[in-house]
Design brief:
It contains seven helices and no strands. It has 147 residues and is mainly alpha-helical.
């Protein structure tokens, strides 16, 4: 495991940042593997279960916000961003997926927190999925950035 001082030193370099993220993802996956699989956790992973849509919604919200923000700063089209930062993107997908699955598989209930409800999260996630697909389609069609 990486100590906090080593993590700070590693975070100053881009390649080391993905290494520190990979170490975190490995420790998170170990925690996920220690969970017992029950009928409810298998049902959560089913096509009609809550896990696939929840994970995709969270990834779409992060992806759309990140892609649009990077485009506004001049980083180029989404596909160019994804190609340039493929290892970091893969680590982010892995960590967000596991972080979304652990509470579902452990059987914890999703609590309302102020205006943030599970219904609002799914509605915003669905909007982000449509926005991300539209962004990719329009950039492919026009050949340059949308923002």
């Amino acid at each position: 495991m990486v100590s906090p001082t080593e993590a700070k030193a590693l975070a100053s370099r881009p390649v080391a940042m993905s290494f520190a993220g990979a170490c975190f993802a490995v420790s998170l996956s170990t925690a996920c593997l220690n969970l017992r699989l029950s009928r409810s956790s298998v049902a959560a992973m089913a096509v009609s279960g809550p896990a696939p849509e929840l994970v995709n919604a969270r990834l779409a919200m992060l992806g759309f916000a990140g892609a649009a923000g990077a485009e506004l700063q001049g980083a180029g089209p989404v596909l160019a961003q994804a190609t340039a930062y493929a290892p970091q993107l893969a680590a982010l997908v892995f960590v967000v997926s596991l972080a979304s699955l652990v509470p579902l598989m452990s059987g914890s209930k999703r609590q309302r927190w102020g205006p943030f409800t599970s219904g609002a999260e799914l509605a915003l996630g669905r909007s982000a999925m449509i926005g991300m697909a539209s962004l990719l389609a329009l950039e492919t069609l026009y050949g340059n950035t949308l923002f």
